[in-house]
Amino acid sequence: xxxxxxxxxPKAVLRLPDLEQSKSAVxxxxxxxxxxxxxxxxxxxxxxxxxxxxxLAFNKTVVTRYRIFLEQARYASxxxxxxxxxVRRLAYEAADAGLLSPDLAAGIRRVKGAxxxxxxIGNWLTAAQARRLLEVFDRRTLRxxxxxxxxxxxxxxxxxxxxxxxxxxxxxxQREEHWVFAHLIGxxxxxxxxxxxxxxxxxxxxxxxxxxxxxxxxxxxxxKAGRIASHSFSPKVIWGVVxxxxxxxxxxxxxxxxxxxxxxxxxxxxAENWSRSSSC
Length: 280
Known about the structure:
The chain has helices at residues 16-28, 33-52, 60-72, 77-96, 102-109, 127-134, 142-157, 161-165, 198-211, 235-248, 256-279, and strands spanning 172-175, 178-185, 191-196.
């Protein structure tokens, strides 16, 4: 008679290999690259804190202590809740793999997040600062035309840098006598159509005409010899362009999300005006 295999008993204390295995399971379950980066960073931070104190049981009490640690470090409520969401997902995957007791995982999932008091105003660019930023680019050069069009899209359409880098010629379409970026797939797989003001469409057409771009990615790399690549670049390159331009016009303390915040308001107002004009 074959011997019965022993059931692996779930653990209360997870070691580094167990945590890394659960972390890989979490990241593989996420479709969005942005979510993968956020959860990867959040889980790495938790593992570093968890392993700094030996023989801690992975349970509700420990995760509550971690939340208190984050609050004492003066993290924002949204950041704390994101970190806790990643830890809850880590506990779920560990329990699903038989590494952690289901009871302990259920307790961890009941840990409450940080309370939010109001809405943060943010650090947005004013209209005057946005104009000053756009004036930095020399539109007599090929690189200046490209950078001007890129920053104009960021400011006027409210796209994320990853969405801007992924723009293709076929995304720019005309709908009801208005130009739009049609059916953009953004964060979390959400599909949306974004209105494009006339001045931004004009700037993009000028760049595409000068660069002879009729298909494929709209914004592309330019080497030192002035040759235009056939492929697009990463969102990090776009942030490098923005950072250099901000340094040139003395806009200190500008972060990537500053553009999203400012442009979100502009895009919302423009969408409202567009809907009013379309209904007339």
